[in-house]
Amino acid sequence: MTFSVIARDPGTGDLGIAVSSCILAVGRAVPTVRPGVGVVAVQARSRRGLGTALLAGLAQGTSPADLVRHASHAAEDVDRQIAVLDTAGQVAADTGRGSLPASGHLVGDGFSVQGNMLTSPEVLPAMSQAFTATGGGLADRLLAALTAGQDAGGDLRGRQSAALQVVSGTAATDDDDGVRLDLRVDDSGDPVAQLRMLRNLQRAYDERDYETLAVFAPEGARDLYAALAASRRGDRAAARTALEAVRTRPGWSTWLASMAGDARLAAVSRLLD
Asked: Burial, 110: exposed, middle or buried (Cβ in 10 Å; 0-12, 13-18, 19+)?
Protein backbone atom coordinates (compact mmCIF):
# COMPACT_ATOMS: atom_id res chain seq x y z
CA MET A 1 0.00 0.00 0.00
CA THR A 2 2.81 2.31 -1.05
CA PHE A 3 4.39 4.07 -4.02
CA SER A 4 8.11 4.72 -4.44
CA VAL A 5 10.93 5.53 -6.84
CA ILE A 6 14.56 4.37 -6.71
CA ALA A 7 17.29 5.77 -8.94
CA ARG A 8 20.97 6.40 -9.61
CA ASP A 9 22.42 9.74 -10.65
CA PRO A 10 24.71 8.99 -13.62
CA GLY A 11 26.67 12.20 -13.02
CA THR A 12 27.53 11.77 -9.36
CA GLY A 13 26.94 8.05 -8.88
CA ASP A 14 24.64 8.81 -5.93
CA LEU A 15 21.76 6.44 -5.21
CA GLY A 16 18.39 7.32 -3.75
CA ILE A 17 14.80 6.49 -2.93
CA ALA A 18 11.64 8.49 -2.31
CA VAL A 19 8.53 6.83 -0.92
CA SER A 20 5.09 7.69 0.41
CA SER A 21 2.27 5.68 1.94
CA CYS A 22 -0.78 5.69 4.15
CA ILE A 23 1.09 4.01 6.99
CA LEU A 24 2.92 5.49 9.95
CA ALA A 25 6.67 6.10 9.39
CA VAL A 26 7.08 4.56 5.94
CA GLY A 27 10.76 5.57 6.04
CA ARG A 28 11.27 2.89 8.67
CA ALA A 29 9.55 0.16 6.67
CA VAL A 30 10.25 0.45 2.92
CA PRO A 31 13.79 1.78 2.16
CA THR A 32 16.99 -0.12 2.81
CA VAL A 33 20.09 1.72 1.62
CA ARG A 34 23.85 1.36 1.95
CA PRO A 35 26.51 3.68 0.48
CA GLY A 36 28.65 1.91 -2.07
CA VAL A 37 26.22 -1.01 -2.28
CA GLY A 38 22.73 -0.09 -3.40
CA VAL A 39 19.13 0.78 -2.66
CA VAL A 40 16.19 -1.53 -2.08
CA ALA A 41 12.46 -0.82 -1.83
CA VAL A 42 10.44 -3.52 -0.04
CA GLN A 43 6.68 -2.99 -0.18
CA ALA A 44 3.26 -4.65 0.07
CA ARG A 45 3.30 -7.68 2.36
CA SER A 46 7.06 -8.14 2.44
CA ARG A 47 8.83 -9.49 5.50
CA ARG A 48 10.90 -6.86 7.28
CA GLY A 49 14.27 -8.57 6.83
CA LEU A 50 14.03 -8.88 3.05
CA GLY A 51 15.63 -5.50 2.34
CA THR A 52 18.69 -6.32 4.44
CA ALA A 53 19.03 -9.71 2.74
CA LEU A 54 18.83 -8.14 -0.72
CA LEU A 55 21.49 -5.55 0.16
CA ALA A 56 23.72 -8.34 1.43
CA GLY A 57 23.33 -10.03 -1.94
CA LEU A 58 24.33 -6.85 -3.73
CA ALA A 59 27.38 -6.51 -1.49
CA GLN A 60 28.42 -10.02 -2.50
CA GLY A 61 28.20 -9.13 -6.19
CA THR A 62 24.85 -10.67 -7.11
CA SER A 63 23.00 -8.67 -9.78
CA PRO A 64 19.65 -7.01 -9.06
CA ALA A 65 18.01 -9.22 -11.69
CA ASP A 66 19.23 -12.40 -10.03
CA LEU A 67 18.22 -11.20 -6.58
CA VAL A 68 14.73 -10.31 -7.75
CA ARG A 69 14.39 -13.59 -9.63
CA HIS A 70 15.35 -15.55 -6.54
CA ALA A 71 12.96 -13.61 -4.31
CA SER A 72 10.09 -14.13 -6.74
CA HIS A 73 10.46 -17.90 -6.32
CA ALA A 74 10.84 -17.89 -2.53
CA ALA A 75 7.73 -19.19 -0.81
CA GLU A 76 7.98 -16.65 2.02
CA ASP A 77 8.16 -13.72 -0.41
CA VAL A 78 5.45 -14.48 -2.97
CA ASP A 79 3.24 -11.61 -1.76
CA ARG A 80 5.93 -8.94 -1.80
CA GLN A 81 6.77 -6.03 -4.09
CA ILE A 82 10.47 -5.20 -4.41
CA ALA A 83 12.86 -3.07 -6.43
CA VAL A 84 16.67 -3.37 -6.30
CA LEU A 85 19.30 -0.93 -7.61
CA ASP A 86 23.08 -1.31 -7.56
CA THR A 87 25.92 1.20 -7.87
CA ALA A 88 26.26 0.60 -11.61
CA GLY A 89 22.66 1.65 -12.18
CA GLN A 90 21.38 -1.86 -12.84
CA VAL A 91 17.82 -2.10 -11.60
CA ALA A 92 15.21 -4.83 -11.35
CA ALA A 93 11.74 -4.99 -9.83
CA ASP A 94 8.92 -7.43 -9.29
CA THR A 95 5.33 -7.23 -8.08
CA GLY A 96 4.22 -10.36 -6.24
CA ARG A 97 0.78 -11.83 -6.69
CA GLY A 98 -0.23 -10.75 -3.20
CA SER A 99 0.14 -7.05 -4.00
CA LEU A 100 -3.20 -5.27 -3.86
CA PRO A 101 -4.50 -3.60 -7.08
CA ALA A 102 -3.94 -1.24 -8.68
CA SER A 103 -0.32 -2.34 -8.51
CA GLY A 104 2.77 -2.75 -10.66
CA HIS A 105 6.22 -1.40 -11.51
CA LEU A 106 7.96 0.37 -14.37
CA VAL A 107 11.71 0.06 -14.94
CA GLY A 108 13.65 2.73 -16.83
CA ASP A 109 17.28 3.61 -17.44
CA GLY A 110 18.81 3.58 -13.96
CA PHE A 111 15.50 3.93 -12.12
CA SER A 112 12.31 2.15 -11.19
CA VAL A 113 8.89 3.23 -9.92
CA GLN A 114 6.59 0.83 -8.11
CA GLY A 115 3.37 0.87 -6.13
CA ASN A 116 0.41 -1.11 -4.93
CA MET A 117 -3.11 -0.34 -3.71
CA LEU A 118 -2.97 2.79 -5.84
CA THR A 119 -5.94 4.94 -6.80
CA SER A 120 -5.44 4.13 -10.50
CA PRO A 121 -3.02 2.67 -13.06
CA GLU A 122 -2.04 6.27 -13.97
CA VAL A 123 0.08 6.78 -10.86
CA LEU A 124 3.20 4.89 -12.01
CA PRO A 125 3.37 6.34 -15.57
CA ALA A 126 3.04 9.82 -14.07
CA MET A 127 5.94 9.12 -11.72
CA SER A 128 8.13 7.69 -14.49
CA GLN A 129 7.46 10.63 -16.79
CA ALA A 130 8.16 13.18 -14.05
CA PHE A 131 11.45 11.56 -13.10
CA THR A 132 12.60 11.42 -16.72
CA ALA A 133 11.54 14.98 -17.53
CA THR A 134 12.87 16.72 -14.42
CA GLY A 135 16.35 18.24 -14.37
CA GLY A 136 18.57 19.01 -11.42
CA GLY A 137 20.01 16.79 -8.72
CA LEU A 138 18.88 13.31 -7.79
CA ALA A 139 16.92 14.41 -4.71
CA ASP A 140 14.89 16.89 -6.75
CA ARG A 141 14.14 14.32 -9.45
CA LEU A 142 13.04 11.76 -6.85
CA LEU A 143 10.77 14.33 -5.23
CA ALA A 144 9.33 15.30 -8.61
CA ALA A 145 8.41 11.68 -9.25
CA LEU A 146 6.87 11.29 -5.79
CA THR A 147 4.89 14.50 -6.21
CA ALA A 148 3.60 13.36 -9.60
CA GLY A 149 2.50 10.08 -8.06
CA GLN A 150 0.62 11.89 -5.30
CA ASP A 151 -0.95 14.31 -7.78
CA ALA A 152 -2.14 11.33 -9.84
CA GLY A 153 -3.88 9.88 -6.80
CA GLY A 154 -1.21 8.05 -4.82
CA ASP A 155 -2.25 5.56 -2.14
CA LEU A 156 -5.92 4.54 -2.37
CA ARG A 157 -6.35 4.82 1.40
CA GLY A 158 -4.99 8.35 1.74
CA ARG A 159 -1.80 10.03 2.97
CA GLN A 160 0.28 9.70 6.12
CA SER A 161 4.07 9.48 5.69
CA ALA A 162 6.93 9.95 3.24
CA ALA A 163 10.71 9.64 3.15
CA LEU A 164 13.67 10.66 0.99
CA GLN A 165 17.14 9.13 1.19
CA VAL A 166 20.21 9.72 -0.98
CA VAL A 167 23.56 8.01 -0.41
CA SER A 168 26.92 7.93 -2.12
CA GLY A 169 27.67 5.32 -4.76
CA THR A 170 31.01 4.74 -3.06
CA ALA A 171 31.53 3.04 0.29
CA ALA A 172 31.46 5.00 3.54
CA THR A 173 34.76 5.98 5.18
CA ASP A 174 35.81 7.27 8.59
CA ASP A 175 35.57 10.82 7.20
CA ASP A 176 32.38 10.43 5.15
CA ASP A 177 29.45 8.21 6.11
CA GLY A 178 28.14 8.44 2.57
CA VAL A 179 24.71 9.77 3.57
CA ARG A 180 23.80 12.75 1.41
CA LEU A 181 20.19 13.19 2.51
CA ASP A 182 17.92 11.42 5.00
CA LEU A 183 14.55 13.11 5.54
CA ARG A 184 11.35 11.62 6.90
CA VAL A 185 7.78 12.73 7.53
CA ASP A 186 6.25 10.13 9.82
CA ASP A 187 2.71 11.45 10.27
CA SER A 188 1.15 14.23 8.20
CA GLY A 189 -2.01 15.08 6.30
CA ASP A 190 0.15 15.99 3.28
CA PRO A 191 3.46 14.13 3.72
CA VAL A 192 4.83 14.69 0.21
CA ALA A 193 4.38 18.46 0.48
CA GLN A 194 5.96 18.34 3.94
CA LEU A 195 8.88 16.36 2.54
CA ARG A 196 9.42 18.98 -0.17
CA MET A 197 9.52 21.67 2.51
CA LEU A 198 12.10 19.70 4.49
CA ARG A 199 14.17 19.26 1.33
CA ASN A 200 14.14 23.02 0.76
CA LEU A 201 15.11 23.62 4.38
CA GLN A 202 17.96 21.11 4.13
CA ARG A 203 19.14 22.89 0.98
CA ALA A 204 19.11 26.19 2.87
CA TYR A 205 21.32 24.71 5.60
CA ASP A 206 23.68 23.12 3.06
CA GLU A 207 24.01 26.32 1.00
CA ARG A 208 24.03 28.67 4.02
CA ASP A 209 20.96 30.46 2.74
CA TYR A 210 20.59 32.68 5.78
CA GLU A 211 17.66 34.63 4.35
CA THR A 212 15.57 31.44 4.19
CA LEU A 213 16.79 30.19 7.57
CA ALA A 214 15.87 33.51 9.18
CA VAL A 215 12.25 32.63 8.34
CA PHE A 216 12.06 28.84 8.57
CA ALA A 217 14.70 27.76 11.10
CA PRO A 218 13.56 26.98 14.67
CA GLU A 219 12.31 30.15 16.37
CA GLY A 220 15.18 30.29 18.85
CA ALA A 221 17.76 30.46 16.06
CA ARG A 222 16.03 32.81 13.62
CA ASP A 223 17.57 35.98 15.04
CA LEU A 224 21.04 34.51 14.58
CA TYR A 225 20.36 33.70 10.93
CA ALA A 226 18.78 37.12 10.46
CA ALA A 227 22.01 38.69 11.73
CA LEU A 228 24.09 36.59 9.37
CA ALA A 229 21.80 37.40 6.45
CA ALA A 230 21.90 41.13 7.17
CA SER A 231 25.68 41.05 7.54
CA ARG A 232 26.04 39.29 4.19
CA ARG A 233 23.95 41.90 2.37
CA GLY A 234 25.76 44.76 4.15
CA ASP A 235 22.82 45.97 6.26
CA ARG A 236 24.69 46.92 9.44
CA ALA A 237 21.66 48.29 11.27
CA ALA A 238 19.58 45.14 10.73
CA ALA A 239 22.50 42.91 11.66
CA ARG A 240 23.08 44.89 14.87
CA THR A 241 19.39 44.66 15.84
CA ALA A 242 19.20 40.91 15.16
CA LEU A 243 22.40 40.15 17.04
CA GLU A 244 21.27 42.19 20.03
CA ALA A 245 18.11 40.03 20.07
CA VAL A 246 20.30 36.91 20.06
CA ARG A 247 22.32 38.15 23.01
CA THR A 248 19.20 38.74 25.10
CA ARG A 249 18.26 35.04 24.97
CA PRO A 250 19.35 33.09 28.07
CA GLY A 251 22.68 31.36 27.51
CA TRP A 252 23.26 32.70 24.00
CA SER A 253 25.69 35.45 25.02
CA THR A 254 28.04 32.81 26.47
CA TRP A 255 27.65 30.68 23.35
CA LEU A 256 28.48 33.64 21.09
CA ALA A 257 31.62 34.31 23.12
CA SER A 258 32.69 30.68 22.70
CA MET A 259 32.25 31.01 18.93
CA ALA A 260 34.57 33.99 18.61
CA GLY A 261 36.80 32.01 16.25
CA ASP A 262 33.99 31.49 13.75
CA ALA A 263 34.65 33.95 10.92
CA ARG A 264 30.97 34.43 10.10
CA LEU A 265 29.98 35.25 13.68
CA ALA A 266 33.07 37.36 14.28
CA ALA A 267 32.14 39.58 11.34
CA VAL A 268 28.67 40.14 12.80
CA SER A 269 29.91 40.58 16.37
CA ARG A 270 32.22 43.39 15.28
CA LEU A 271 29.12 45.38 14.41
CA LEU A 272 28.45 45.73 18.13
CA ASP A 273 31.93 47.01 18.97
From this structure: middle
